[in-house]
Amino acid sequence: MTAVLEPRPTVTQQRGGVGSLKDRPIGQKLTLGFGMLVLITLIVIGLSFYASADASRTINATTSVRQPAALAATRAQANLLRMFSDVRGYLALGDPVFLEGYRQANIAFEQDLQELQQLADSLGPADQQRLEQLKADYARWQQYPDQLFALRDNQMDREPAYNLLNTTGTELGGGVLIGMNQLIEAQALRDPSQRNNELLRDMANFQSSFAALFSGLRGYVMTRNTLFRYYEYEINRDLNDATWERLSTQRQFLTPEQRQLFNEIDTTRSQFFNAVPNEAFAIMQSDGWRLDLELFSTEVTDLTTNMEQLLSDLTESQQALLEQDLARSNESLNRARVQTLLGGLGAVLLGLVLAVLLRQNIAGPVQRLTGVAEQIRAGDLTAVAKVESGDEIGVFAETFNNMTVQLRREKKRANDLLHVVIPIGVALSSERDFQRLLENILVDAMDFCHAHNGALFLREGDDLNCVLLRLGERYAARGANSQHAIQLPTLELYNRTTREPNQHYTVTYAALTGESVNVAHVAADDRFVRVDFGGAASADMGFTSLLVIPLKNNQQQVIGTLGLADARDPDTQQIIAFDANLQQMMESYSSLAVAALEAYIREQALRQEIQELRIEIDEVRRQKQVSEIVDTGLFQDLQARARSLRERRQRNRRGMDDAPDNADSPDILADPAAQGDPSTNPPDGAA
User: What CATH number is given to the structural domain containing 120?
Assistant: First the structure.
């Protein structure tokens, strides 16, 4: 029989009447709500007018931002061009007026840049990026003017060819002239003769032509005028070469001292022509003949052009935005005022109409829907809400009906599921191959790591027991499904007396600390008493590498350990150490193994619970069947007739005791129904 649930009191009944706002009827809530709507609408109208006035202030603020930014960018552009012009003028003329003009323009430019930086937060992303790029370019540009001024003031530093001529050229050229002068003085002291006079003349011609070519080279280096090179240096170079050639053919007529001095002049002259003229000409023909001009043209000019373009773009952007903002703000302001006024009046009228109409069309349907909800809450899933309209309440009523249909379906599904779970639980309870699960865990781990040996330990309290052992080819398998039982001592995790942790073995260490143990070379590891499976192998097995992984559940509790030994290279079959990455993968694998073990345990527990649930359901079902039989009208009618028959028989027996003449009458007289008494006949269909 279905139990009838008493309807729970409503929130209003529980609170003893109408109290706070959430306990009021829906009609009052709607009236109050639409009254608030009217008030809010009026507030919105006031705020809109305030926003319009604020928009006007925003226009003024925009004007005060856009215009200063554009003006500052324009001034910065003009000051940048002034700085560039003054630097170029000083490099060309060296007039201090240009230097002073640069200083003043630089101060003004930095003030403009600082003003732009103060307005940076009000600029758009593109202009902010331009400003950042401008600051970066100026930081680079700022390091060049002082460097250029210093070069301009020092000709030796700014002109490499001039420096070469005044250092190496003067040293070597002066050495040639001084040596030739000494040679001429020595020749003048010799006895006059035609040959000596010719030698003296050639020496004088050499000295004059060399001095002339040196003077022409200096003129070209200082002025970069090609006339000095081609009409003074080249011609005198040819004369000097011809004179030197004649002197070289007559050097045997010189005295030994003169010949030695002649050789020194020849060496110095060769060094001069090899080191100075060609190098000086190469420098003068390149862009680096003046370092200050080269630096100015390659670095300063490009940076100035970039900064000028950035400032120009920034100015144009701010001017365009200024015009757009002014036009858009004025248009939006006028439109917003009209829309706010019309919308506010419409909202007031609409709120008043809704406050009257929706009060009549919401309260009634909601109350009826609430009644249906109370029926369903009481357990009557056949209750149906009437869809009275197509608005939200009608949709809600339809959704409510769909919900009750879904509830009926879910109830039926729960009953069906109950009949499905029991057979499944019976099937699961018959599964007991736990050893097969353990063996799969170990074998899969050994195959994955190419390990030659392996062992699986499970923790029972403070003890660690080896439940599965596989040792190479000598002992193919011990435990699980093998024919060799494991006869190994239990490993104690704690000393029985002192309760000190037993970390002398790799497997006990992993079980106690929850940390993996990876031993690359057993012979070289002295951390443990036994670097094996804690005695789970004979001493002559000779493990080389070892890996022990703790088996931890999701509460980080160690329920056992997985030991692997002697990893082998898949190609060479040589014993190698367990890789660190492989260790991490095995630690993840251990989590899956623990999950499988716990799933099996939970499965066994679930089977037991299902079995107990089946027994309870059978008992409840039998009680329900008995209750259904007892509560039927037929059974109760039969009980009433039986009581009536027993009472009549008792009366008949008492009557027979009083009238012995009727003792031999049939027993049917004791049953009025048998005599055809209509008052005792059962109704039609009662049998």
Answer: 1.20.120.1730
Cβ(445)–Cβ(451) below 8 Å: yes
Cβ–Cβ < 8 Å for 562, 536: no
Q: Is 436 helix (H, G, I), strand (E, B) or coil?
A: helix
The token duo for 245 is 């050639």
- State the Cα torsion 166-171-174-178 to the nearest 10°: 160
Other CB atoms within 10 Å distance of the CB of residue 563: 28
What tokens were used for 254? 């010189």
Q: What angle (nearest 5°) sits at the alpha carbon of residue 461, between those of residues 531 and 527?
A: 20
Q: Output the six-digit token pair for 53.
A: 């006035």
pLDDT tens-digit series, residues 533-557: 665 544 445 678 889 999 988 888 8
**How many residues appear in the chain?**
687
Distance CA 369, CA 363 (A): 10
Backbone angles phi, psi at 139, to 5 degrees: -60, -35
In angstroms, what CA-CA distances link 315 with 116, 323, 327, 462? 11, 13, 19, 82
Give the number of other Cβ atoms within 10 Å of residue 193's Cβ.
Answer: 10
**In this structure, what DSSP letter does residue 5 have?**
P
How far apart are the C-alpha atoms of 276 and 278, rounded to whole Å?
Answer: 6
- Domain encompassing residue 189: 171-289
Rounded to a whole number, what is the largest CA-CA distance in the chain?
212
Beta-bridge partners for 548: 517, 563
The residues, ordered by sequence, that sit 6+ positions from 112 with a Cβ below 8 Å of its Cβ are: 72, 73, 75, 76, 79
What does the pLDDT look like over 319-372, one tens digit per residue? 787 777 767 767 766 776 776 777 677 777 766 766 666 565 666 677 777 877
Count how many Cα atoms sit within 13 Å of the Cα of residue 316 in the half-sphere of its side chain. 7
Domain edge (last residue) among 430, 447, 463: 430
DSSP state of 31: H
Looking at the structure of the chain, the number of domains it has is: 4
HSE toward the beta carbon, residue 663, CA cutoff 13 A: 5
Q: Show the 3-state SS of 402-428.
A: HHHHHHHHHHHHHHHHHHHHHHHHHHH
**What are 563-580's pLDDT values in tens digits?**
888 888 888 888 888 888
pTM: predicted TM-score of the whole model, two decimal places: 0.38
